[in-house]
Amino acid sequence: MSNSYAAAGVDTEAGDRAVELMKAAVQRTHGPEVLGGVGGFAGMFDVSALKQFEHPLLATSTDGVGTKIAIAQALDKHDTIGQDLVGMVVDDIVVVGARPLFMTDYIACGKVVPERIATIVAGIAAACSETGTALVGGETAEHPGLMGDDDYDVAGAAVGAVEADALLGAERVRDGDVVLALESSGLHSNGYSLVRKILADASLSYSDHSADFGGVVGEVLLEPTRLYSGPLVRVLAQPALSGAIHSLSHVTGGGIAANLARVLPRGAWVEVDRSTWSPAPVFRVLSSLAGSTLESAEGTWNLGIGFFAVVSAASAAGVAAAIEAEGIRTWPVGTVSTAERAFAASDGFEQGAKGVDGGAVRLVGAYAS
């Protein structure tokens, strides 16, 4: 009987091969600020540029991709999950107005398949490059006996920086501000436990071709999360729009109203007009399969809105045009009011979320056809 690590199911040589396969992709995210290259115990990033800040603040975020990974595993298609991870982690940082600096990732798997791990990390690296984020380190852990050979999960953490007087948040929001919606690319990385249940109940396989979905079901559902950090950082840096954006919201877990409420001050409220957009077919098909309405999914899926920007009324058109110039469809969905009123769940309002004692939001009207 062997008591070696290999006999226990851990292949350190496969881990080394995975690192070699991913090294070039990771190095392409490195600028002169990254020290030490790939493979060190700690990633290092030269932050001497922060000396140019009057009052630098660091912003950090951590997240994973959730059960969307189950679809990637079922189709053996792993080249989009990395972008999902970066979107979920880095796009939370820009919410406070911060520019992302660097990121680390963690992959746990039942068995290291070097090519699969390298494909996942290549996707992370490509998205990091697109968002201006250095991928400075990571870890791949093999967990035989705890996870199946083809099982894996991914998580990451990132750090960014913002000047204190440029910090975005609810305290900047004013009566009359315009709420802009930024279009999503699809489901992004939230609500997939519901998606998977709907497909199972409908006896649909991820490999099935569906005219309603417009292609192979799983491939449609793997549409990667849109990346907002790069475009928003560039828009925030435009002198003509200085101070125009008051708060930002990333529409992730919790849905539309709750995530917008988190970036409004207590006492402020917004009615989001559903008639200003038409949710994409993937949302409509899933709702139809579930025998439910789009409205019932507003607390689970983004339904076509991946981000909100709360901006001054005078600059709303300019901000929308600047974001549109970055390739993201943007449109007004409502106006902030601070007029005194009572908020009740029975009236459809959601007030605050995730421990934030924020404003109140409800969706009104009917979706455009």
From TrEMBL:
Pathway where it operates: Purine metabolism; IMP biosynthesis via de novo pathway; 5-amino-1-(5-phospho-D-ribosyl)imidazole from N(2)-formyl-N(1)-(5-phospho-D-ribosyl)glycinamide: step 2/2
PurM-like N-terminal domain: residues covered: 57-162
GO biological processes: 'de novo' IMP biosynthetic process; adenine biosynthetic process
UniProt keyword terms in alphabetical order: ATP-binding, Cytoplasm, Ligase, Nucleotide-binding, Purine biosynthesis
GO cellular component terms given for this protein: cytosol
EC number per UniProt: 6.3.3.1
Catalyzed reaction equations: 2-formamido-N(1)-(5-O-phospho-beta-D-ribosyl)acetamidine + ATP = 5-amino-1-(5-phospho-beta-D-ribosyl)imidazole + ADP + phosphate + H(+)
GO MF entry, a single one: ATP binding
Record domain PurM-like C-terminal: where: 174-340
Transmembrane segments: none
Record family assignment: Belongs to the AIR synthase family.
Protein name as annotated: Phosphoribosylformylglycinamidine cyclo-ligase
Gene assigned in the entry: purM
